[in-house]
Specification:
8 helices
Length: 189
């Protein structure tokens, strides 16, 4: 069965349906719905779930309003990326590909670099949260810098090793391991 970039007839976009390239069709079938959903959930349910309530506790009841605004923003981003995927169906996707397609090479280059730098900052925040979480989980009251450094390295390299093994190889891992790895891999580029 060939996958296409089908659009409802009511859209009237004028863009004909095109079959996916063989490479993209192979990628679409490689994971399957369950594994792809697990990867997305593992990436979203990351450190934010563990750190957001502590940060928002100081805001009092306004924290719930903030969570609502964040949820609306996340849904808008999901719709945006869904529409971009329809508009640029045969690319590998991502911020670089979409901005390059719409605005040219320089915009794609600039967005790619900005995203990469943002990913570094995101990884630092994820690792800091990971260290605090592990310290609290195991009751480490006054950790030394070297202990926290070791915890941070484990929090970076275990998800990196899982990512390097590949998504199909990581399917054999138990779900809790994938969830923890997804928390660390949320911003991996």
């Amino acid at each position: 069965m060939a996958l296409t970039t089908a659009r409802p007839a009511s859209e009237g976009s004028g863009i004909p349906d095109r079959p996916l390239s063989p490479r993209n069709e192979k990628k679409a079938h490689a994971l399957g719905l369950t594994s792809a959903t697990g990867l997305v959930v593992g990436s979203i349910v990351g450190t934010g779930v563990f750190t957001m309530p502590a940060v928002l506790a100081g805001a009092g009841t306004m924290g719930i309003v903030v969570l609502g605004v964040i949820a609306v923003g996340a849904m808008l981003l999901a719709v945006l990326f869904g529409q971009l995927t329809k508009r640029v169906p045969n690319s590998d996707g991502g911020l670089y590909a979409y901005s390059r397609h719409e605005f040219g090479d320089f915009a794609g280059y600039l967005v790619g670099w900005c995203y990469w730098i943002q990913a570094w900052a995101g990884n630092a925040a994820i690792v800091a949260s990971w260290v605090f979480y592990v310290d609290a989980l195991f009751g480490i009251d006054h950790p030394t810098g070297m202990e926290n450094w070791g915890i941070a390295l484990l929090g970076l390299w275990i998800p990196a090793a899982i990512n390097l093994a590949g998504s199909t190889a990581s399917r054999s891992l138990p779900s809790p391991v994938k969830s923890l790895a997804g928390a660390g891999a949320a911003h991996d580029v």
